[in-house]
Amino acid sequence: MSFDINKTRDDFPILEKRIHDKKLVYLDSAASAQKPSSVINSMKKFQEEEYANVHRGIHYLSNLATDQYEFSRKKVKDFINADNENEIIFTMGATDAINLVAQSLSYDYFNPGDEIILTIMEHHSNIVPWHFLREKCGVNIKWIDCDNNGVIKVEDFLSTISDKTKLISITQMSNVLGSEIPLKEIINVAHDNNIRVLVDGCQGIAHLDTDVKDLNCDYYVFSGHKLYGPTGVGVLYGKYDLLESMHPWRGGGEMIKEVFKDQITYSKPPAKFEAGTPNIVQAVGLGAAIDYFVEKKKQGLFDYEKEIAKYFHNEINKLPKVKVYGEKNIKSPMISFIVDGSHPHDIATIVDKEGVAIRAGQHCTQPLLDFFNLSSTARASIGMYTNKSDIDIFINALNKAISFFD
Questions:
Q1: How far apart are CA 296 and CA 303, in angstroms?
Q2: Active-site residues: which are they?
Q3: Could you read off the pLDDT of 237-254 as tens digits, one per residue?
Q4: Are the C-beta atoms of residues 168 and 186 closer than 8 Å to each other?
Q5: In what helix (H) or strand (E) does residue 326 lie, and over which residues does it extend?
Q6: 23 - beta bridge partners?
Q7: Which of 20, 49, 59, 79 has the most neighbouring CB atoms within 10 Å?
Q8: Residue 339: what pLDDT?
Q9: What's the pLDDT at 1?
Q10: Which long-range contacts (CB under 8 A, 24 or more apart) does 56-61 make?
Q11: Separation in Å, CA 358 to CA 173, 347, 350, 380, 383
Q12: What pLDDT digit, counting tens, does each position of 285-300 carry?
């Protein structure tokens, strides 16, 4: 079965919306992807017919809701090929998941002077939590640079690692440059030196085949809303023995085994890290999004995206005054660029008047933009619903913006 872009677009009701009386062209999927009807309807049905709190009752609805919630956990486990569902922690998003790992490891894993290695391409969500540990535990953060296309070298990790290095936290795909990372080689080097690796999969999960056992990463995080699911839900995968050894971050109901006046004991993972009433509806929606995404993958989604990306890169590189960052990443699902003589915010405002949604700013990657001596870029990013007509409309809109500043 081949990927059918027209049928896929029909599944996304928001694409019928008009912006400034123009057809909506949504090129901001790297920030947050739109939702297919199956995801929207699954959440609506759950709230109308099946909702109750989970893990807390013996009545019919509570058991039904619990089954739905835990079935979504199994879908995540199968999707990323984890060993078992107990390695899957539901969080509020990837940011929440990284903070969970950072704060949990601050109890007894890190000591003053220990080192964490990051790359210059990391999203702020994979930087700030480690700065918290720098302030709290006295750890040192070391940095790996990339080249102008986001290429990083395994050799740079080898030369940066020391006997104080305890963790490497690294993106699977840059949200600015779209560059892919030699993760398996980096992880192998890390494990040879008894170093744990956390992978930020926010962009990679939607555009790359992801198998956590094949990667052999220690932790993997992603957000539901970048995978065509709802906001407010994300995933932390962790190897079970590591999760079992970690101190819980949040305290409350569900994560506790016994509570006495003078002591407490904790539940086993995943409950250990899911304090309080979870985002039940959002988790159900994530399960529906995974169902939909897996089906599209089977139909050839990734090949289609690469074709559209190449077309996009080819067309934008024809324009005058446009400089693309990561220009060699012609299969990248996002294109970050500037236009000589204009500010990215102005570019985004002008193309918005043509119904085109793109993003402008730092993209939560200030260290990377500092590396390029930039304050901001414009960024257009594709999703499974992007077609050539979308690209053509954007190119025409961008041409108008360029002419406006002539």
A1: 11
A2: 364
A3: 999 999 999 999 999 999
A4: yes
A5: none
A6: 18
A7: 79
A8: 97
A9: 57
A10: 56/254
A11: 19, 9, 10, 5, 12
A12: 999 999 999 999 999 9
Residue type, 26: Y
Residue type, 193: N
* Predicted local confidence at residue 57, as pLDDT: 81
DSSP string covering 222-241, please? EEGGGGTS-SS-EEEEE-HH
Angle CA 221–225–229, to nearest 5: 110
What is the DSSP annotation of 59-95? SHHHHHHHHHHHHHHHHHHHHHT-S-GGGEEEESSHH
As given in the structure block, the two tokens for residue 387 are: 């077609």
Q: Which two tokens stand for residue 5?
A: 């872009």
First-to-final CA distance of the chain: 47
Question: Rounded to 5 degrees, what are φ and ψ at 248?
Answer: -65, 150
Strands 165-171 and 115-119: parallel
Query: Tell me, what amino acid is at 87?
Result: E
CA atoms of 312 and 332, how far apart (whole Å): 10
**Nearest of 312, 400, 316 to residue 355 by alpha carbon:** 400
Compute how many other C-beta atoms are within 10 angstroms of the C-beta atom of residue 132: 14
Give the pLDDT score at 60.
Answer: 95
For residue 260, count CB atoms less than 10 angstroms from its CB and return exposed for 0-12, middle for 13-18, buried for 19 or more: exposed
Strand partners, 143: 118
Residues 6 or more apart whose CB falls under 8 angstroms from that of 103 comprise 129, 132, 249
Helix (H, G, I), strand (E, B) or coil at 268: coil
- What residues contact residue 119 under an 8 Å CB cut-off, 6+ apart? 143, 144, 145, 146, 152, 170, 171, 181
Q: What is the DSSP letter of 248?
A: P
Q: What radius of gyration, in Å, describes the C-alpha atoms of the chain? A: 22
CA distance 78 to 74: 6
- Sign for the CA dihedral angle at 284, 285, 291, 293 comes to negative
pTM equals: 0.97
Residues of the chain with pLDDT under 50: none
